[in-house]
Amino acid sequence: MANNFDDADRVETVRIRGLSGEATGGNFYKLVGGSETFKKLAAKFYEGVASDPLLKPMYPEEDLGPAQLRLQLFLEQYWGGPATYQELRGHPRLRMRHSDFKINPAARERWLLHMRAAVDSLSLPQTQEAELWGYLDRAATAMLNTFED
Ligand code: HEM
């Protein structure tokens, strides 16, 4: 697993290492079904974003396809899959990369709403679902950068 994430990511990485060890016979990425699972997650999430009146206008590109792939690759790398994200985009520094976007509690709620639907679409076993959701929920909080409307 790549370990050069920003501080918020690093806290999570350390926590998740416990689960990625021998007890589970492999890492979380493999456990949940590898690339196909993250591809489905990102696709379902961006289906929601495409019709969201608050989130869609925040995306610099009209075509959400490239953003969808970036999210997929980031999550694959984060959970112990190939480091393709890093090869294409460099160090994640997600908080910094989000600093141009106004992420207030309302934006966070919308993001999590679509992510909830995406996670549900995977029908993962409960422990895996809780692990994935717990991370996404906290990561979304870490991305908050304003409390203004
Ligand atoms: C909390 C609400 C959030 C909002 C409103 C938001 C919004 C955005 C926007 C507008 C972009 C630019 C699209 C692009 O060009 O890729 C972006 C990029 C990205 N977001 Fe978020 N995001 C949020 C949370 C998160 C979270 C929690 C994660 C990870 C768990 C995440 C992962 C990413 C990634 C990997 C990229 C692409 C970064 C790059 O390589 O340039 N986002 N996000």
UniProtKB/TrEMBL annotation:
Gene3D superfamilies: Globins. GO terms for molecular function: heme binding; metal ion binding; oxygen binding; oxygen carrier activity. Keywords: Heme, Iron, Metal-binding, Transport. CDD domains: TrHb2_Mt-trHbO-like_O. Belongs to the truncated hemoglobin family. Group II subfamily. This is Unannotated protein. It comes from freshwater metagenome. The lineage of its organism: unclassified sequences, metagenomes, ecological metagenomes.
